[in-house]
Amino acid sequence: MTMGKRTAVLFLLMLITSSIRCLQSEANAGIAVGSEQVLRPYDRECLLSLRRRAAPEPGLLDYVPEELLKRPRKRGRRGGIKHRLRRRCNTPPLPSILFSNVRSLRNKVEELRLNTRILNEYR
């Protein structure tokens, strides 16, 4: 398990537990807006207590399932325009009109217009 995921999981768990504690302590301090939404003001001590809890409790990650702690497997090639151009190396991006049949010229012009509008490689 990587340190970044562990830190993120710990932060979320601490945020949830401390927000539940703050809501329980200030149950009567809600302001009703309409009939559904309730806004609760937090005092300074409650917000500072969220920041102070930086050290995780031992055994806190034992309850987190392994599926959440696994890093997703990367598949395929690396993306990006810079990487694609580096992969092509010395072959310049030539428009497809140079290698076309005269009968399919209209389709090639439409394709070139579309590529110049969408792809950064053609701009």
From TrEMBL:
The positions making up the signal sequence are 1-22
Q: Keywords assigned by UniProt?
A: Signal
- What's the superkingdom here? Eukaryota
Protein name (Swiss-Prot/TrEMBL): Uncharacterized protein
Where does this protein come from, organism-wise? Pogonophryne albipinna
Q: What does the organism's lineage look like at the top?
A: Eukaryota, Metazoa, Chordata, Craniata, Vertebrata
